[in-house]
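Input record (one chain):
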Amino acid sequence: MAAVELWLPFYHQFRLRGRSVEAGAAVEGDERGPRPRWVHCGSSISQGRGAASPSRTWTALVARRNGWDLTSPALGRSSCLEPMTARLMRDLPADLLTLRVGVNVQALGSHSRDALVPALIGFVRTVREGHSTTPFAVMSTITAPEREEAPGPSGMTMRECRAHIRRAVTLLRDHGDTRLRYLHGPDVFGPVHTRLMLEAEGSDRLHPAADGHPVLASRFSTLLRLADCVPILTDAAEQRLRTPAPSARIAPQGEEK
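The corresponding structure, as predicted from the sequence alone:
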């Protein structure tokens, strides 16, 4: 018997036409039981643009490395603290919550300097209506070389945007949200990693390339654990995670096996 996972395309439209198995094969559920549920939201960086395949986006790598069950409603040109996204995260089952925010707030001018902090506080408080004590990490955007000191439509540079995000998290923690953490994007994927970005030097560099996704995944996992922001598991759940299972996967057409 083998465990099989199907990772759907992350940046293109698709239609799943069917599934088939050989005659005589048996299909069973995963006997290890449910894994810790991780809900991550963000923009195209979180969606996986630039990755080599659906199973090699940085979020997919983090999930497999840690044994987490990933749900990612990330979408390109989003993560502007939309209320409907906060309500979705509130209503999804989750043992860990993470949000990567900043790049489109700055690029699209969705929030001014004065509006960003209250908007982020409102977003987090909405999510907290359904997950009052769940570990929750808010990560500012990774390095964006052409935007660090260049004002966007609302007048904020990327550095200023990150400072406001950090301030919002600090205010929430000071008022009792002790399970909330801030991750500084450039600490996860910073200026030393620009050679691993998808876009060419001189263009608007925002996304990790295929070689950059494993680096981002590794550093994100490390910093998340250093921040003590991991799912809180029961003894039984920890035992399930320590029990290895044989694995195999089906590669969609055009994806390397």
